[in-house]
Structures are given as structure tokens and as C-alpha cells.
């Protein structure tokens, strides 16, 4: 009888640990994306010509989004957001435009 109790306790412990590990993995592993990183970069470069500086896959407003930073030929940094499920371009914006303008104002004032 003691062997059955010990075996039952060990089995329950193994199931508990396995379940906890599975739950932790499910929380840290992103859902599969329909658009891979290479395709997202191709889409972004179709919007903004230049050299890709950085690519990140992030969770934004409940969906996975690629944020792709591109340096244009004239030195401007642009960011293109691509929906990782549909490949749709969500946003194209200049990265850090406001900071550059403030620095220029400070230089002209001094």
C-alpha cells in the first residue's frame, strides 16, 4: 500500500511539473506567424528604399508586428510596421524627426 501511495505522489508531482513547464513555454513562445522576417523586410523595402538597420517582432495591441528600421540614402531613419499575420503595412514614419529638429534649434540659438 505504501508503494501505491508513493507511486501516486510521484506521478502527481511529475504531472504538476510538466503542466507548469508547458504553461510557461506557452506564455513565452510567440504564436506562429504567417509572414516570416525575410518577407516582412521585403515588404518594408517596397515602402521605403534603403538599408535595414534592425528588425524586431513585437506584440502590439494584441497582434504580432514586425518593426523594421531602415536608413535611407539621404541618411533619414524610417520605421515600417508590418502585420506578421497578414503582411499589411500598418505604419511608415520617420524615426526621431522631433529630436533632430530640437538639436538644430539649439545650435542656431547659441
Written overview of the protein:
The protein is α+β, with helices and mostly antiparallel strands and 110 residues long. The protein folds into two domains: 1-30; 37-109, Nuclear Transport Factor 2, Chain: A, CATH 3.10.450.40. It has three helices and four strands; from the N terminus they run H-H-E-E-E-E-H. It has helices at residues 2-28, 37-47, 97-109, and strands at residues 51-60, 63-71, 77-83, 89-94. It has a four-stranded antiparallel sheet, with helices on one face. Strand 2 (63-71) and strand 3 (77-83) form a beta hairpin. The N and C termini lie far apart (88 Å). The model is unreliable at 24-29 and 98-110 (pLDDT under 50).
Give me a quick take on this structure.
With 110 residues, the protein is α+β, with helices and mostly antiparallel strands. 46% of the residues lie in helices and 29% in strands.
Topology:
Elements: H1 2-28, H2 37-47, E1 51-60, E2 63-71, E3 77-83, E4 89-94, H3 97-109
Antiparallel strand pairs: 1-2, 2-3, 3-4
* Helix coverage percent: 40-55%
Taking Cα atoms only, what radius of gyration do you get, to the nearest Å?
Answer: 24 Å
Shape: elongated
Round the mean pLDDT to the nearest integer and report it: 77
CATH architecture assignment name of the largest domain: Roll
Uncertain ranges = 24-29, 98-110
Q: Could you state the order of secondary-structure elements as H and E?
A: HHEEEEH
Distance between the termini: 88 Å
Kindly identify the CATH topology of the largest domain.
Nuclear Transport Factor 2, Chain: A
How big a fraction of the residues is strand?
25-35%
Specify the biggest β-sheet: 4 strands, antiparallel
Which structural class matches the secondary elements? alpha+beta
Number of helices, counting only DSSP H or I runs of 4 residues or more: 3
Q: How is the largest sheet built, in terms of strand order?
A: 1-2-3-4
* Secondary structure: number of strands: 4
Domains (count): 2
